Amino acid sequence: EAGVVQSPRYKIIEKKQPVAFWCNPISGHNTLYWYRQNLGQGPELLIRYENEEAVDDSQLPKDRFSAERLKGVDSTLKIQPAELGDSAVYLCASSLGETQYFGPGTRLLVL
Amino acid sequence: DAKTTQPPSMDCAEGRAANLPCNHSTISGNEYVYWYRQIHSQGPQYIIHGLKNNETNEMASLIITEDRKSSTLILPHATLRDTAVYYCIASLGGAQKLVFGQGTRLTINP
What we know:
- By secondary structure, chain A is mainly beta.
- Chain A has strands at 5-7, 10-13, 19-24, 31-37, 44-50, 53-56, 65-68, 75-79, 88-95, 100-102, 106-110.
- The model of chain A has no long low-confidence stretch (mean pLDDT 95).
- Chain B is an all-beta fold.
- Chain B has a five-stranded mixed β-sheet, with no helix packed on it.
- Chain B is globular and about 40 Å long.
């Protein structure tokens, strides 16, 4: 069974540029999560989807971050414009029941 | 979500049992104890979870004290590939978010 797929794996951009991350969850998993992990810290939830609906986006900085999950499968997380402090690893996870399965993450560096 | 406390780092010899402690003194009766680990440059990996009873799977054993205020993750025969950051998380389970702390950096030495 394929795991959670994320792309790109690495991204380097200049500040004020836009960037987008893509996630394909495990087939059949209706819950999808985006986490951000700063260096030396544990991951922190940005947004959680139940199918197409964002049910918890309280930690998503809505002035520059946006996310969508069209058709309740793949998801995209966007930052526009990026700031230096957005440098981090962005992790996508999916679940069907009690366990969350994480992708490898996208490592973003903003210069 | 209850706060968990873990030692920042531990060492263990290859082939020995690695015992990772976690304190969760404010855990509520319906919160599970989850363990995940994160190997360098990878996403977190689920290991095991439990509510009251001790649990065992192919990766590890989870021992939860009777008062549920602490738990221990046991890797019975640690290998070099078990070197990772281990996170203990108290969560209501299901689709609820996971609140990660700083975890324990476990180093397995040859």
